[in-house]
Amino acid sequence: MTARLDTDKESGVAVVTLDRPEKLNAIDLPTARQLTGIWRALRFDDTVRAIALTATGTRAFCTGLDRDAVVPQPNSPYMQDDPLLRIGPKSNDLWKPVIAAVEGMACGGAFYLLGESEFVVAGESAQFFDPHTTYGMVSAYESVLMAQRMPYGEVARMMLMGTAERVSARRAYEVGLISELTDTGGALGIAVERARVLAGYPPEGVQGTVRALWSAREAALAHGFAQAPHLIALGNLPADRQNQLFTKRTQNFRIR
């Protein structure tokens, strides 16, 4: 299992863990299916009332879709299969609060998970960036999700700058992407503490509030997501050209 679920029935808190540290917790197709299964199962577990989402290791929370994953696509600009569209709790109709705990890098497809979390706690060494434009890809779903969490200029800069720039945990806190900073390695402990508070409240009120908060975002998300497949089909370079750019990547970036 590369996505792990641990539950504490006494506190009412579950911890969902991405567990591919050797791959910087990148999501392959089996991991995507496991995440979907976990969120769906949690809908029926009334002993779990709040969830912390984390990853193994401190190098990376998640680096998005595993580049070795093979995702067959229909031969049409009007249809596209994105294996990350169902890896988050909201896309699986789970309305229990989710708190993300981020250590290390969170980039690209990681924003599918962060975008569907109620709030984010991060260690001071966390860094956020989106590599899509660097490698000739359109950042569509990620940009739409992050535009709901950050000021437009900040999310535009992060998505457009690609691998040239990484947003530090401190800057992410200043612009509202994360709600709480901790010492490196401390994010999960704080996220679990906050989840225990939420799990101690009547679940009907908590889940109703989660649903109300999400409803305020749904119209913009639905409109943005409807455009995403066409923009990706039009703007993405062919896979072989993307791979060439990825192979030539450098480690030169600035942190702000």
From TrEMBL:
Keyword Isomerase attributed: yes
Keywords assigned by UniProt, alphabetized: Isomerase
SUPFAM superfamilies referenced in this protein's UniProt entry, alphabetically: ClpP/crotonase
Presence of the UniProt keyword Isomerase in the record: yes
InterPro entries referenced in this protein's UniProt entry, alphabetically: ClpP/crotonase-like_dom_sf, Enoyl-CoA_hydra/iso
GO molecular function: isomerase activity
Pfam families: ECH_1 (PF00378)
Family: Belongs to the enoyl-CoA hydratase/isomerase family.
Protein name, as recorded: Enoyl-CoA hydratase/isomerase family protein
Source organism (scientific name): Streptomyces roseirectus
